[in-house]
Design goal:
Distance between the termini: 25 Å
Length: 289
């Protein structure tokens, strides 16, 4: 009897340790799955050059930016006494699109951002010359100096709205290739670790694998609803309306993608738990029979 008791105690001990180990691995697997989901979504959205360009277009960023720049130009027109005609054709939505896309290409390539304003400057200068000629204005040194200040101000409006901050953009450009590599390495490492942990958890306790997937899925779903309830994503204001709209658009996409991943993880996890529980129930029934 004593031997039976000791064997039973040993079996219970081993079972408890096995259970504890499976739950510990389950917690780590849950964390790895959440982190992997977030990194993958960021890598294939924010860190994807073509995707960023596509979303800039779908969020009407170029059109909104064009209107903002035109408003900035008009403020200087009112102060200068020039006619609005001098702004004709100095910028177009197409030219803004090209400059923004060149900016993005430079960012992802890790090269110095350099936006050419020669076409804008030459067109503006030609329009001013035509305006002066049409009205027979006499241009003295002071007027010439004021015109130069006006042209520089217009160019500054354009550059500041395209680049926002040249120093910050160039700093980001320096680190962008490194960040992309780090994300790739991190994702590969997490995939390998998650697979190893998933196999170990499955061997120790099949239901625990389902619990990991359900837990990570629920946390991703919760983060989606929490963000919408507590953070006014659609009312975010950064730099200007165009950029704010784009940031809100991207954040919504990221949250929606994480929500979808959460739903998929939840469903797969529940299926695994149901199948594992069903197997355990059948085994117990066979033993009692």
């Amino acid at each position: 009897m004593q031997n039976v008791y000791l064997i039973r105690k040993l079996v219970i001990n081993i079972f408890n340790k096995k259970k504890l180990l499976s739950y510990t691995l389950c917690i780590f697997l849950t964390l790895f799955l959440i982190l992997l989901s977030i990194l993958c979504v960021i890598k294939y959205t924010i860190l994807n050059k073509e995707y960023v360009k596509q979303q800039l277009n779908s969020s009407n960023y170029y059109t909104d930016l064009y209107n903002i720049i035109q408003d900035g130009f008009n403020n200087y027109i009112l102060q200068s006494g020039f006619d609005n005609k001098i702004l004709d054709n100095i910028i177009t939505i197409s030219s803004i699109t090209d400059d923004v896309n060149n900016l993005i290409d430079s960012l992802f390539a890790g090269s110095i951002v350099n936006i050419s304003t020669s076409i804008v400057q030459d067109t503006l200068h030609a329009n001013i010359e035509n305006f002066i000629s049409e009205h027979n204005y006499i241009v003295d040194d002071e007027t010439s100096s004021n015109i130069k200040i006006f042209e520089d101000s217009i160019i500054d409006v354009y550059i500041n709205n395209i680049v926002y901050s040249e120093n910050i953009v160039n700093t980001i450009s320096t680190f962008m290739p490194k960040v992309q590599k780090l994300f790739t390495i991190a994702i590969i490492a997490l995939v390998v670790l998650s697979i190893v942990l998933a196999i170990l958890v499955f061997i120790l306790n099949k239901a625990s694998l389902g619990i990991s997937l359900v837990s990570s899925g629920l946390l991703l779903i919760f983060s989606h609803f929490y963000s919408y309830i507590n953070i006014a994503i659609n009312n975010i204001l950064i730099l200007n309306k165009a950029f704010s709209t784009f940031v809100s658009h991207i954040l919504n996409i990221i949250l929606n993608n994480l929500f979808i991943i959460g739903i998929v993880g939840l469903i797969i996890g529940l299926i695994i738990i149901i199948l594992a529980s069903s197997t355990v129930f059948k085994n117990r029934k066979m033993l009692t029979d």
